[in-house]
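Q: May I have one protein plus its fold?
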Amino acid sequence: MASFDDLVAEGDSVPLDGWDFSWFEGRATEERPTWGYARLIGARTATVDSALDVQTGGGEVLATIPHPPRLLAATESWPPNVAVARRNLEPLGGKVFEAPDEGPLPFDDESFELVVSRHPTVTIWPEIARVLRPGGTYLSQQVGAGTMRELTDFMMGPQPVSQARSTERAKASAAAEGLTVTQLRHESLRAEFFDVGAVVHFLRKVLWTVPGFTVEGYRDRLAAMHRHITEHGSFVAHTQRFLIEARREG
């Protein structure tokens, strides 16, 4: 078995570009929501003429759609991800625009029949409502309140759970922009880490789990995590996911 130092060094050296979690295979697992987000957007994009993916990451999920619409666009804020997304989406005819997560979106009013977003850092409801055509739909899988709180609390001590990502907040924010929520589903899903290197890579990649995380700053807690995994075989936490669909009435 690899040593604590070797595992930490490995997790700290993995490149962060893109939003591909295949590196975790055999080292960590996470249950997926039963609604199947990639399948849903694949079905939806096949029925519209124009679609936008907000905060596409490396475009990995959008690249799986089988029948792209005539107009396919995506936004991403992090330059390394922009380059990855352009490579992934070019075969579909997709155009990737660099844009800040907080907006504005670089598109005219009423540009898209469908707007999608997987795990946005922030949902810019006014901009989504603006770029949707009348009768258009926003479909998004989001990170819910309290996601991975067991990991956050292990590393930082008990932390308050913000309701900024609650389903109630999302529904109210959509309604405030004149959007009608037509679907809202929530699931709590098991996540499991089998070595401390996977924990390190996850905390580097999913920055909001432990804000300001560095290996040096959290080495003592990482050592405690390593002992926990060695003793128990894994570290278990739970992700919170919700699916929200909102329609702009015509």
